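Worked example 2:
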Amino acid sequence: MDALHTPSPRWISALEADRAAGRKGLAVLVDPDHARTPADLAWMADPAFAAVHTVLLGGSLVTEGSMDLTAALIRERTDRPIVLFPGAPSQLTAEADALLFLSVISGRNPEALIGKHVEAAPRVRELGLDPVGCGYLLVDGGRTTTAHFMSGSLPIPADKPNIAATTALAGHCLGMQCMYLDTGSGAPNGVPADMIAAVRRAVPCPIIVGGGLRTPDAVMDAWAAGADLAVVGSAIERDPQFLQSFAAASASASTSA
């Protein structure tokens, strides 16, 4: 690990403290395939980036980008925690503060449940990463996404919140520290509010929600339904001004409240 990089306090502990205090957070997901030069991360220089809680790094399929390079570019631009959101055991870097050790508990593919984790675990320890046990629930967002295809699993139907809730409860009983509900990058639809709310009632741990969050209002709707951390990725790639819009909407909502 870079001698100049001092890991932050445990990321999951901070997220749990935020949840206990009722604080909601915004995370941005950076895909190494789409962030290979400083210009690709120019949006991080915007003062509105101050609204970001966490930078997630990874993708369902990284073919050209470098986790090490992109993590270093991010590290040069912010002191926000960098948390790995890996789609494969190869997507690891010592530049990160923590790792979402994702188990696709919504599916029945043994490789995505535990197989790849066995392969990755020695490398995670070698790199000194802080693994966070995370129950990953793929939800139907209106079309098959890369996450669905690469995980080799069927998504939870969007109109079945009880399936998501009981699946999350099972993951919590197995000791998972957080739940991640996701429709996948570029999905037409986000996770339904009633599904987020059902999972919120089922488990006490932090809930992360991503996929299909294209507007500031969508982020705040996910928060209102029970998400502790809402994740935006493709929306920022399409609109570098997204964070400015989010900061304005968030300020307006706070004033109205």
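The CA atoms of residues 119 and 176 lie 19 Å apart. The mean pLDDT is 92.
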